[in-house]
């Protein structure tokens, strides 16, 4: 009984769209204080290094014990682990023990009898998410939603590969795959004949002196491990089973800053591998690219290397800016929100008052030309609708709608996050493409045949009727809360995502095929919610609010 949301997602360059009420160029700590104020538990630890001058801070309540230095608190770093896996692959290639073009079949047991399209997947394709493997295997043990990978053994991994039959051959377009990254870590174990944790210690963390960057915590480290929270509830740390290369590492802000500094230092022991890792090899979306697991984008004329991460109770963000020798680390012991949108205020200057553009009048009937669904990739889409007032609103998959202002010539702006949308027309005059311009990037999307959905925007007072906690199972709850004109739904162990009203008491997801139907008692008060997904309809009664 859980919403099968997508796994740990890549940071899309438009992740700030609709995420912050007031983006600004405020210091990182000031920006995250706003986010910490929204959370029920936990908090942030930040680290920033500029030309080797380092500052750390704790924001909210992330410390496991009083008096502990923020930079010594240990967090799960989730998919930032993939950057370490990419480095291990690069080292392996430099040593001549494997080639990026080697197929995975070269390193797997010969008795697996793989589909030829699976057998041809290369190590590079695993590292760049172009293998065509799904995000997650379909044989995860679903008995513990709070620790979903724990029982995913090597036997389960090989069993999945044996019976997986993709439609197309690799390489395919970038599609994020925890399975693929975890498989890469497993193959590195087979190539070297050593466990992933041993490879990590011998080749990266040991040489760099990263004593707190580990997979298994010592008893002393356990006392510095931040309690993971999902909303207001403590949850389990995650165990990654056979997919350790996808997200099993724990670390501190101090270690990650030192790690980032080593990536910027030509005489460091990992710099030769980093030179291979950072070479871009595939395009994710627009101008955002990927190297060997690390994400790359040109932001305001500066090349940035980054990755975010998340497990069931933690969120993380790691970024390098070589031109200014800046390393940024943000760690959070709550899965309530993604970190990248809250960095948008730091990374994207808010237009000055004098730079405000003038809205051009347009008839509401003409706005219908633009409504529809525009695909960036198979999983990322822009949805364009007209609300009840006739105004045009745009959302990116997994984000709220934002009202846009018409500038003329088929161009609109979402001013509060400095984003512009340019529509283009075919020879027939019909609008057929949409291009987002933001932070120096252009992201094109092509119109699909899918019509614009029906979306209602209830007043905030109405949305408050649904706010509360709903018990889905003994250890899993829904936390429902409004933010302005948008309702967000969070299930234990997953990030809060917007749900959209299409009829009274009924809200739909856009990240998965699922819906929430709220029930009312005889007094008209919302008393339960029913989740409709994959033919199942579990009911979650509302938990009484005992606060006085």
Concise description?
The chain has 14 helices and 29 strands. With 548 residues, the protein is of the alpha+beta class.
What features would you describe in this structure?
By secondary structure, this protein is α+β, with helices and mostly antiparallel strands. It has three domains: 220 residues, DD-peptidase/beta-lactamase superfamily (Beta-lactamase, 3-Layer(aba) Sandwich); 93 residues, Lipocalin (Beta Barrel); 82 residues, Lipocalin (Beta Barrel), CATH 2.40.128. Helices cover 21% and strands 28% of the residues. It contains 14 helices and 29 strands. The strands form five sheets. Strands 16-15-14-13-21-20-19-18-17 form a nine-stranded antiparallel β-sheet, with no helix packed on it. Strands 2-1-12-11-10-9-8-7 form an eight-stranded antiparallel β-sheet, with helices on both faces. An eight-stranded antiparallel β-sheet has the order 22-23-24-25-26-27-28-29, with no helix packed on it. Strand 22 and strand 23 form a beta hairpin. Helix 2 packs across helix 11. It is globular, with a radius of gyration of 23 Å. The chain starts with 27 loop residues before the first helix and ends in a 7-residue tail after the last strand.
Corresponding CATH superfamily of the largest domain:
DD-peptidase/beta-lactamase superfamily
User: Which strand order spans the largest sheet, edge to edge or round the barrel?
Assistant: 16-15-14-13-21-20-19-18-17
- Spans of at least 5 consecutive residues with low confidence: 1-26, 347-355
Query: What Rg is obtained from the alpha carbons, in whole angstroms?
Result: 23 Å
Q: How far apart are the first and last residues' alpha carbons, in Å?
A: 31 Å
Chain oligomer state: single chain
Structural class of the helix and strand makeup?
alpha+beta
Give the biggest sheet.
9 strands, antiparallel
Remind me, CATH topology of the largest domain? Answer: Beta-lactamase
């Amino acid at each position: 009984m859980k919403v099968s949301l997508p796994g740990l997602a890549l940071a899309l360059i438009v992740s700030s769209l609709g995420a912050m009420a007031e983006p600004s160029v405020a210091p990182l700590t000031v920006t995250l204080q706003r986010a910490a104020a929204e959370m029920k538990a936990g908090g942030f630890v930040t680290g920033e290094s500029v030309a080797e001058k380092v500052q750390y801070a704790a924001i909210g309540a992330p410390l496991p014990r009083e008096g502990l230095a923020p930079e010594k608190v240990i967090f799960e770093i989730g998919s930032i682990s993939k950057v370490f896996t990419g480095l291990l692959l690069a080292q392996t290639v430099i040593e001549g023990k494997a080639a990026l073009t080697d197929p995975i079949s070269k390193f797997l047991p010969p008795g697996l009898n793989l589909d030829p399209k699976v057998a041809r997947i290369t190590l590079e394709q695993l590292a760049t998410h172009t293998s065509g493997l799904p995000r997650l295997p379909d044989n995860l043990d679903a008995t513990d939603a709070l620790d979903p990978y724990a029982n995913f053994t090597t036997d389960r991994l090989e069993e999945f590969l044996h019976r997986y039959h993709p439609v197309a051959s690799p390489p395919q377009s970038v599609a994020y795959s925890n399975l693929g990254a975890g498989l890469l870590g497993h193959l590195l174990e087979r190539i070297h004949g050593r466990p992933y944790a041993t490879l990590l210690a011998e080749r990266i963390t040991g040489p760099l002196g990263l004593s707190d960057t580990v997979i298994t915590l010592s008893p002393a480290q356990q006392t510095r491990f931040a309690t993971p929270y999902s909303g207001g509830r403590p949850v389990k740390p995650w165990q990654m089973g056979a997919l350790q290369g996808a997200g099993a590492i724990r670390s501190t802000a101090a270690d990650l800053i030192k790690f980032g500094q080593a990536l910027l230092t030509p005489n460091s022991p990992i710099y030769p591998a980093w030179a291979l890792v950072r070479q871009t090899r595939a395009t994710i979306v627009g101008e955002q690219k990927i190297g060997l697991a690390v994400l790359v984008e040109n932001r305001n004329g500066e090349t940035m290397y980054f990755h975010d991460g998340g497990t069931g109770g933690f969120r993380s963000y790691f970024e390098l800016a070589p031109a200014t020798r800046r390393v940024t680390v943000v760690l959070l012991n709550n899965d309530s929100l993604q970190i990248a949108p809250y960095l948008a205020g730091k990374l994207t200057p808010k237009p000055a008052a004098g730079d405000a553009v003038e809205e051009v009048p347009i008839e509401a009937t003409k706005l219908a030309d633009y409504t529809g669904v525009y695909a960036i990739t198979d999983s990322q889409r822009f949805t364009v609708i007209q609300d009840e007032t006739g105004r045009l609103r745009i959302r990116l998959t997994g984000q709220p709608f934002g009202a846009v202002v018409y500038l003329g010539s088929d161009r609109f702006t979402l001013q509060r996050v400095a984003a512009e949308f340019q529509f283009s027309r075919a020879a027939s005059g019909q609008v057929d493409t949409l291009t987002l311009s933001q932070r120096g990037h252009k992201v094109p999307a092509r119109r699909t045949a899918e019509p614009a959905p029906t979306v209602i925007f209830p007043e905030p007072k109405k949305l408050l009727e649904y706010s509360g906690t709903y018990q889905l199972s003994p250890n899993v709850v829904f936390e429902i809360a409004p933010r302005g004109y948008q309702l967000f739904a969070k299930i234990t162990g997953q990030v809060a995502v917007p749900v959209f009203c299409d009829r009274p008491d009924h809200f739909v997801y856009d990240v998965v095929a699922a819906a929430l139907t709220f029930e009312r008692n005889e007094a008209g008060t919302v008393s339960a919610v029913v989740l409709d997904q994959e033919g199942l309809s579990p009911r979650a009664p509302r938990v009484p609010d005992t606060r006085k």
